User: Which sequence fits this backbone?
């Protein structure tokens, strides 16, 4: 363990033809950590990875790897491995030579004997030993992805940069490979920065998550940290399955009044609130909302918009006059589309957000669970 | 809309049986999803219903009437593909009414139909825009509106969401489920994504190697798979599959020295006495950790990790890693014992893969 974080990005700025991709991005990835960069398409994920690898010229900001400032260092000297979605394998070489490619470069100059050993061990780990003599053209998507990871792994870089590495694969393959990445991580104690737009992918693999949008990190922390105190509406929309429920509401005489709902929630339940009057957005994790059959006492009424079966549970989308939300319910709750239902937001559950900026304005101590 | 029946349908391509003796009735207004790996015959079946591929033998019936010899355009089907093809030079409104205009439907009728789809699909501002100005998800919705505006006998959807970005895909899935029930149109949908199938279907038709493996409602598909293939294809993470040998006093797990004692009683006598190797299928949600020494079995626990608010763990039997879900209230650590829910145990014949010892859906 080094005392320094493995990767430190400070104030990164980058524009492409006048369009800003990174707008002062700060990020720290600790040694031996899997860090997921979660955000929608165009959020700045790829630029962050490319900047870390030294593959783009930054307009401003510093990049440090293991405490060393590498902002002006060329990509080859950074000792990081980047794996793209497109696999970037060399079609003219077979699998074995693709994996060995970097080891044969002047920077490594390993003996062929050693190269063979390392390629063999890596192939075994990724269960592609039987493919070593095949042309990469003849491989399936999942096999190619494993070869691409093997090629990165074989030279034991100080850090992996993985750009949506699994998104082109089908669900089953993705799950298998996620488990493999965790396995590799445990065996090699490697540091990984993993960019994805898939919430499930991010939480399945990461120790910590950074929510990225508009070229800056909106919030970084463990999934529990983010659940406990989400920084903004945007974070709420990207986290959770289903994601956070939002209701139009207003603060009135010490209460939060939800539009179209029966409930008046004491404002103290949200901790200190920056603005004491006026319109706000109430955000609640769906797990915290109680849903039941229609016309339950003290609850508000909603309507089932659609039902989503998931095997051992089902999710429902409920329309209310203050907004719609989605929630997982047990199989014993037999809702069908068009049914009326009741819902109740427990006192102290949820967070208040500014309507304009989307920033959280409540300092809830008990808002999350 | 119509009831669609397939009777012993087979489709061969130069000796290769792409579809092998498939029989099924899709009820009026039902949402049926054909699910299976690539090459299982699901798309070929759909194309045969559409009239784009000829049946080698067997029949396709619309409301009891044989349509084998009708062309695609004579069958009154509507088909939506993975890649949307809207006319780029026409406004959304003109795109939607195009099929009606092409058939010379009266103006007043066109206006009435347009009002109806505008209302159901919640289209407003979009109507006067051009396809290029809409996001992909919205374009797919327009394609769907155009498909249903002329009351097709059946709506055929071939992986309609697979070309859409993952972040919009879930939105579209909710919307599609909602719309189909609003419209009440008989719908046949093809996908390789079990999550999509579970989410949308009234009934799932699971196919493999040209044959139907199982036809069930989503819940039963999950809890009552007919064989190992069905059990493993449905559900995420994949069902754990463990070799099982009947031994004195229990069932031995893989090559471990651990036996499940009570589980033996769940099996019929013939399965035990036959001495045939079995496989145990158990989903992660039915495997837990416990620190009660009188409960569960001792198996090495590798890793305990959180996914959102859920805690998963992995455990090993021989060289194979399996997964379980730790209950939220659990305090058990990696020294804990592994407990299998009796009601979550599925037994399969190791040789044939068929389910053993339970009444299962066909």
Assistant:
């Amino acid at each position: 363990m080094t005392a320094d974080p493995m990767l430190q990005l400070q104030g990164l700025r980058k524009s492409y033809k006048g369009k800003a991709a990174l707008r002062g991005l700060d990020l720290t990835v600790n040694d031996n950590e899997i860090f997921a960069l979660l955000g929608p398409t165009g959020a700045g994920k790829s630029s962050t990875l490319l900047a870390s690898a030294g593959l783009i010229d930054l307009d401003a900001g510093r990049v440090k790897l293991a405490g060393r400032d590498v902002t002006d260092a060329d990509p080859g000297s950074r000792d990081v491995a980047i794996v793209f979605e497109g696999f970037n394998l060399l079609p003219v070489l077979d699998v074995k030579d693709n994996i060995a490619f970097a080891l044969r470069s002047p920077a490594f100059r390993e003996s062929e004997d050693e190269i063979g050993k390392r390629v063999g061990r890596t192939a075994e780990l990724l269960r592609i030993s039987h493919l070593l003599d095949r042309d990469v053209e003849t491989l399936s998507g999942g096999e190619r992805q494993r070869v691409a990871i093997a090629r990165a792994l074989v030279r034991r870089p100080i850090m992996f940069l993985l750009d949506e590495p699994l998104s082109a694969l089908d669900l089953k393959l993705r799950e298998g490979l996620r488990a493999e990445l965790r396995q590799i991580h445990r065996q090699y104690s490697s540091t990984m920065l993993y960019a994805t737009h898939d919430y499930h992918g991010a939480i399945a693999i990461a120790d910590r998550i950074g929510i990225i949008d508009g070229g800056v990190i909106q919030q970084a922390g463990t999934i529990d940290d983010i659940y406990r105190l989400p920084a903004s509406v945007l974070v709420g929309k990207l986290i959770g399955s289903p994601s956070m429920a939002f209701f139009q509401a207003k603060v009135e005489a010490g209460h939060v009044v939800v539009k179209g709902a029966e409930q008046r929630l004491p404002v103290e339940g949200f901790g200190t609130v920056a603005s004491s009057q006026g319109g706000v957005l109430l955000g609640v994790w769906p797990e915290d909302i109680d849903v039941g059959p229609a016309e339950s006492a003290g609850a508000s009424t909603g309507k089932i918009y659609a039902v989503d079966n998931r095997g051992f549970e089902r999710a429902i989308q409920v329309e209310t006059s203050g907004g719609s939300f989605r929630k997982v319910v047990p199989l014993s709750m037999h809702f069908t589309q068009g049914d009326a239902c009741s819902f109740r937001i427990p006192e102290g559950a949820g967070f208040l957000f500014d309507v304009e900026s989307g920033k959280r304005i409540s300092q809830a101590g008990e808002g999350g669970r | 809309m119509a009831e669609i029946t397939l009777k012993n349908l087979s489709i061969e391509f130069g000796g290769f049986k792409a579809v092998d003796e498939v029989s099924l009735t899709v009820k009026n207004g039902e949402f049926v999803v054909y699910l299976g790996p690539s090459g299982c015959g699901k798309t070929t079946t759909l194309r045969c219903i559409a009239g784009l591929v000829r049946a080698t033998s067997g029949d396709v019936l619309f409301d009891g009437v044989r349509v084998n010899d009708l062309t695609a355009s004579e069958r009154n089907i509507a088909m939506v593909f993975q890649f949307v093809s809207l006319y780029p030079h026409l406004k959304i409104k003109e795109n939607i009414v195009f099929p009606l205009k092409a058939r010379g439907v009266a103006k007043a009728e066109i206006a009435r139909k347009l009002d109806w789809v505008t209302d159901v699909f919640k289209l407003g501002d979009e109507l006067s825009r051009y396809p290029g100005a809409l996001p992909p998800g919205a374009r797919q919705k327009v394609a769907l509106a155009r498909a249903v505006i002329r009351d097709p006998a059946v709506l055929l959807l071939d992986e309609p969401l697979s070309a859409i970005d993952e972040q919009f895909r879930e939105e579209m899935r909710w919307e599609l489920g909602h719309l189909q029930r609003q419209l009440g149109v008989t719908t046949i949908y093809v996908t390789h994504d079990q999550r999509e199938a579970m989410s949308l279907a009234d009934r799932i038709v699971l196919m493999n190697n040209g044959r139907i493996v199982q036809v069930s409602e989503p819940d039963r598909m999950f809890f009552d798979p007919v064989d190992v293939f069905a059990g493993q294809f449905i559900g995420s993470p994949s069902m754990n599959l463990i070799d099982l040998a009947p031994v004195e006093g229990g069932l031995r797990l893989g090559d471990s020295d651990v036996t499940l004692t009570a589980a033996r009683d769940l099996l019929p006598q013939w399965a035990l006495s036959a001495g045939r190797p079995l496989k145990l299928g158990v989903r992660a949600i039915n495997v837990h950790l416990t620190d009660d020494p009188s409960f569960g079995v001792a198996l090495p626990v590798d890793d305990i990790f959180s996914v959102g608010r859920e805690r998963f763990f992995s455990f090993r039997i021989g060289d194979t890693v399996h997964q379980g879900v730790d209950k939220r209230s659990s305090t058990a650590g990696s020294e804990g014992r592994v407990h299998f829910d009796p009601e979550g145990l599925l037994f399969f014949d190791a040789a044939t893969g068929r389910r053993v010892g339970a009444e299962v859906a066909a």
